[in-house]
Hints:
Blueprint: H1 2-10, E1 26-32, H2 41-45, H3 53-60, H4 62-71, H5 76-84, H6 90-101, H7 107-123, H8 125-136, E2 155-161, H9 171-183, E3 189-196, H10 202-215, H11 217-221, E4 228-235, E5 250-258, E6 265-266, E7 269-270, H12 273-282, E8 289-292, E9 297-298, H13 301-304, H14 307-310, E10 334-341, H15 348-370, E11 382-384, H16 385-389, H17 407-415, E12 420-430, H18 436-454, H19 457-465, H20 468-476, H21 480-496
Parallel strand pairs: 1-2, 1-8, 2-3, 10-12
Antiparallel strand pairs: 3-4, 4-5, 6-7, 8-11, 9-12, 10-11
Amino acid sequence: RDDLVKEEKMAVPGLLDCHVGTMPSLTQIIPCYDETVINDEGMLRASDGVNTNLAFIISQYPEEWRYLAQNIGWEPDALYQDFIGSRLPDDLTMEVRLWAAKRSQTVARTIVGAIQYHEVLSMLPKVRESASRASQLHQPPVLPSTATPTHEHVTQLILAHQTFGRKDSIKANDDAVLYLLERYKDFPVFLVFDYDSQKSREPVTGLVKSAMDKMFPAVRLGGYTPQYASVMARYKCRVGAGSALTYGALEVVEILPRCYSLRIGTNDFQTQGKAANQLSALRFAGGHYIQMMDANMGATFGEACKVPLILRQFQPFSTRDFKTTDRKRVQCRILGFREVIFTERHGVVGSIMASAEWSFGTICQRFLAGLDIRMHYGHPDFIDAFWASNRGSLSKASPEINLSEDIFAGFNARMRGERSSHSDALAWEKGRESSFNAASQFFVKVSKGSVGVMRSRDLKIIAELLNIVDNMSFYFASIAFYLNNWLIDISLQVYVL
């Protein structure tokens, strides 16, 4: 019996053992600009002369299309024909659009993937038990009242939409964002957008000014209204029963007034928009760790079940009892993992790009982590939120130099003597280019970013800190690919001549 008790004490905690006290809180951030949120009807009905876009998506997921038709009580062929012929009711039309968006490179797919982690937490017995105890004690929730108590202390999803509510933005994207906020209103999902009193739409301006009057009465009495602000909002309710979904359905949670616009500079010499958008969302993040995701990602329920355990790699349990942890010792500041390219089946280019991503994002990252020279090469890595919030944010935003803004988070960690680790146990979905033109433009962007890295101050500092072995590893993990290609091109020209 004593041996059995000892084994139980030494057992490594599993997913069902996770509760609020032992599970690190996570903030998921999705920065986006004008990316497609949900595929519109015109795009799905558009044809190349052979097939429509919706028919192509159906050809990639035929069984899932049959499941959708079965769930809504339609025949698969009839559902397709009725959608193309605009004969479906509005609610079923939106269901078809959302079904297609979940299988395309859209913001909706990323949001639904992030929600899978929330679904996992809602099913954990100890998390639900702690939530019921909190409700019995009448403790006010940290997150909004619309969120279920199950999630209020352990997770948060922020959609950082840079152009939401702008006069020059795509109105269909704003409507799609409002629809998703309403659809997932039972989860702690927030919207962070950039407010500019001269560029925002009138309903958004009225919403923000009304919230400012309530939150900052002294400012209102002084007669000063900030022109710029970062605004955090959530879905509250529709203005009237049965009314259309408008900006009035939002409720402003927090406002951070700013003296300057989100991007600083003039004309083409402005700070990086994505880095500025990330910093704007970081100010509202409340989790111990941050997962910054691109707007064309996704996740499955099975992979989301691993997240609470993967986050423990930042501060592992003690090997003595596997229950206590030393919060003063952090194993790493950035924790990366694998990516599964779901566009691999979208033609030859998609397959090639998926293979390239697998070789770099899995094999190369695994090897670099073993050499302790791994940096940060993009999303969806986990990052220590406290460390990032007071040591240079999640990226750098200088124009031209920081074109590849994400990689500088890894440089920052290395320059400060911190580690960036990698885990093969977790995999997130990611979309890649599936056409020649898009793939070419991507490689142009990455090569330009490498030129910016060569001109950066960070490269000089890192090269001075590392030894010769780590310097060679760092060289071949960053700019060597393009320099080697250039040397090969020059060598071929010399050989031919």
